[in-house]
């Protein structure tokens, strides 16, 4: 029988038997397997823990000749013996320059001195605290005085009628400095004479209270008695009865929670 090409060779049509595919079966996983060593269970020996800060400090304080350092071993290989001088001269140093740690921000070459805390006695500390307390009260009083002066200047109507220095000098001495400052500022490109400004300032200084605390106390009394206003409540009450019922006191200490 001939093929399509015309050949009678039957060897080209050999029968090939099908190949059976082997199926690989997975071995069952044993659930009873227990590892012999648990890698999560280990003990830490405290003796092997090294404090980095302490070791660094000790290394700086230890001499190079007393420590087993790489630098010393290299010097010994080159013929150096402990006790010999470093160099050809006999007067040379017998030990490398010791490292002096710097505890400040000065440049290289500046003397590095540790800051020693002074032992201050109790009287000096108390005196310093009292001074700082007085300064803080003065600073707070200055801010409160300016707030009350602005309130009184507006509530009294003086802010609308003051147009000159003479009118500013006629207002209440408690807020006269603010009125003079408002008038003496340059307006419309004109500057008031400095002599007039200086004389008005001196006149005010002679009329105002002697200290900031007295000045603040007088302003607080005026605002409370005439306008029922409390600076620390930030409320202008209707009358004295309402103010007495809701305001805890005159000074800021009464309003502290």
From TrEMBL:
GO CC terms of this entry: kinetochore
Stretches that traverse the bilayer: none
Residue intervals of the G-patch domain: 67-113
GO molecular function, one term: nucleic acid binding
Domain of life: Eukaryota
InterPro entries attached to this UniProt entry: DUF4187, G_patch_dom, GPATCH11
Pfam family name, one: DUF4187
Protein name according to UniProt: G-patch domain-containing protein
Organism: Candidozyma auris
Lineage: Eukaryota, Fungi, Dikarya, Ascomycota, Saccharomycotina
